[in-house]
Protein: non-specific serine/threonine protein kinase
Organism: Gryllus longicercus
Amino acid sequence: MSGFLKVFSKKRPETQAPSEIGLPTSVTHNYHVSKNLETGQLEGLPESWLSFIDSQITKKEKDDNPYAAVQAIKYYNYSIKKKVNEPFKPLFTEDVIEEESKEIEYNLGHIQDVPTEWQEPKANDVSEPTTPPKKAPPVPPKKSKSTKEKAKAMSEALDEALQNLRIEGFTDITCQPHDGGESPILRKKEGGDKLTDEEVYNELSRICHPGDPHRRFERSKELGAGASGTVFIASDTTTNQRVAVKDIDLSKQPRKELILNEVKVMKDFNHDNLVNFLDAYLAEDHLWVIMELLDGGPLTDVVTETVMKEGQIAAVCKEVLKAISFLHTKGIIHRDIKSDNVLLGMDGTVKVTDFGFCANIIGDEKRQTMVGTPYWMAPEVVTRKQYGKKVDIWSLGIMAIEMIEGEPPYLKETPFRALYLIAANGRPQIKSWEKLSPNFKHFLNCCLQVDVDKRASAEELLQHPFLENCMELHTLTPLIRAAQKILRKGF
């Protein structure tokens, strides 16, 4: 511990930190957006918006569903601005989602003549099974929305959208206060519970394993690197166990207290179907987070290189649902369920990777473009409606499509266009629909309901008859080996 004390003695409390400026309040803009009754187009949007939309969406698509276009560009802008290198993705809860929504909605514009017609996402004519399987989860009646409620929703959506943009060549929009006066900017008051760097280091030293990690772990293959640190494989010399290690340079992290919070939570979140936290070490300014190593690699390799049987898909879905159910009982929403975040053991073990432990690993940029990768994203995430735990169920359904077809819907589209299609179409088409068994069709129907009230929960899906015909997990091993051979991978 004396080594740690030397490190901590160098840390001094921040005494003269500058005040933090909060978000503007009572901000309005004098944009007047209307829907042309003859052309069906939205008029009054900034030219930079229209140019970007026109480059990604056809005129007919924009005319048919202007609501989806506005929602897509709003969320796309937010996601691009939020694309930062973090040591861990945040643990999403209902409170976090509410804060995120407020961030998207701040700096609203005053809009007149708002269009009152918009379309709900469609189901793309995917029918229910002709013979309902046994033990199907109950489906509550769909709640209808009045015309007034739809008009209000559209008005709010456009209000949210009219904020300053910085998207691939967009020019900033100069906003004038609507009433000619200045909008007040309030100072954000510092909370009394914010920890200083020295307090963070002291708390980390208390929860971390004492000793020098360099002596216990022998580094081998590096898996990837990013601004927040390096991920590598190491051998534990005391147990001969191979582990994954994330080396985080704390000196480069502006919000060290968030890292402390994530480590605390991970220590308490152990489950058979999660890639579990094993230990942590603090070596001067470097935090080593030790995690389980899954030597079969990501499910992505299997789905892109091999053809899975329904029983194997059912087995993977069941294991992932166990992890999702566990997280949901803890009030946690994963929000990024996809094959990239499901890791496999060579024996067929299936585990959901923790909340971004492997974030920033070099990989397919197409699949890592945005926060909450858009191709797996539920419609309500884009449209900010009834946003909660069931977003993970939608993503599971999209991942099931991955296992059928080798990739998620819209993967060949740009991220913005994918967002538009999700908002406009809702449920994607499934090319191999007619070849699926009735139970599998019904399972997908339960996952991919646009109406959140009709979408099944994780607990309900764990009782679904599709999962009664799971193949043994070890049947995944030949697929893993075949994929690794093709991709020339291996741990």
